[in-house]
Every structure is written in structure tokens, then in C-alpha cells.
Batch of 2 targets.
Target 1
Amino acid sequence: MLQALQKTHRHVCDTTVGALKRQYMSLSIDAGGDMLEHIRPTRLMLVELECYKVSLSDAEKKNNFLQSLGPDWNGYIGALEACGSMEELLIKAAAGARRRSTQAQR
């Protein structure tokens, strides 16, 4: 009986993790989208994946984030690629979004 429960729950967990990872990999920001609103679900999904013990390297996280950016951010990707960690990249992207917002209000 214990083995049957373990098998069932492992299957549910594997399915959940797979769906979450697909959802994370499909995140994107549309043209004119709000970068801060893009960063928030990215962070949440990464934390959730960590809870399921899914380890993604910083390189994988950074690559996925950069690929999720729309054409509005093409000129900024080089600066983001130079970041050493995913955390640094997200901080820099948020700062860039705030800077753009401030410039647009002028």
C-alpha cells in the first residue's frame, strides 16, 4: 500500500513539476509590456521550482529570461548578458525598466 501511495504521489509531483517548468520556459513579455510585471512571475516560478528541488543553473535561468524579452528590449540585452548572476540580471532589468518609465514621463 505504501508503495502504491508513493508511486501515485511521485507521478502527481512529476506532472506538476513538468507543467511548472513548461510554464516557466514559456514566460514572455509582449511589446510595450511592463518589465516589473514580467520579473514578478519569473521570481515566483523560480522559487516554486526550487521548492520542488528542481535545480536550474544561473546560465539556464539567465538564458530563459533573455529569450523571454520582446523586441522592445533588444538594445538592452547585451547589458543584461554581462550580469554575473540571475539575481543581478533581474535587479538590472528592474532598474532599466524604472529608468525607461521615468524617461517616458518627461
Target 2
Amino acid sequence: MRHLRPLLPTSRTARGLTLVELMVALGIAAMLAVAAAPSFTEYLANSRLRENGNNLYAQTLYAQSEAIKRNTVVRVAVADSTITVSDRTDPDDPQTLKTTPLTHGITAEAFTLDFGGEGRPVGFATADVDFAHPSLSCSSDIRCPGLRVDGGGSVRLCADHTGSCE
């Protein structure tokens, strides 16, 4: 009995890519990467700014809730790229409740805000804290967030500190 085999062509066709095709594809990929690089840089900067803004927002809300829970004065402060929340029951001997660093070299204006036992800033004080990127200036592409605390105790994180934060 004869075995049936598919007939193979006498000359095999080459499979895969030629060097020229590979170099053209690599060139196109490189051009796309160069075109996307500025957008990626802005994305990273905005991400890092927002991350630190959310961090300060969370720590401010934590300080406010601890002031209500403890029925005493709790301070949130930013100094030297560190966020510190402390219990100020005894002003001469404050207890640090939480310390969190600002990351990725992001800076924020130094500020101090005390929340009273009712959750409002002591003396109805207000606070405006803006963030900045170490190497990029804030613009419509680089959105530097800003934290706003009003005298009634409302805490808001604005997407862009150059705006009105409404």
C-alpha cells in the first residue's frame, strides 16, 4: 500500500521576517515611542502630584476625625516634606499619632492647622496648601493639586491649585 503524503513544493518558501522588514518595524516602533514620551512624562508627574495630594488629604481628615474622637486639639502639619499628625492635649508634650513622608521629591508649602474637639479648625482658621513638582512648573498639562480647609472644617483637595476649587 502506498502512503499518501502531501506533495511538497520543490522549493521551500522562507518563513519569518527579513532583516529589512524587521528594521522597518523597529523604526516605526521607535518613532511611536518618541512621540509618546512627553505624554508619559506628564502622566507620571500628575500621578505623583495627585498621590501626594491624596496623602495630605487623608492625613488631614485623619487629624479631624481624631480631634472629634478624642475631643481634644489635634494638629496636622507639613514641614520638610513630612506630614505629621499629633495630639495636642498637652501642648508642652504633644504625642505624634502619625508621620508620613511626601514622596518622589514633591514639595508642599509648610503649614500647621489645629482641629478642635468639634472637628473645626481652632479659631476658625483656614488653610491653603499647594503642591509643586521639583522639575516641572504647574500648567494646564501639569496639574498641581491644592488642599483647602475652610473655617467650618470642610476639607477639599482641588485638582488644580490655579483654579477656584469649586
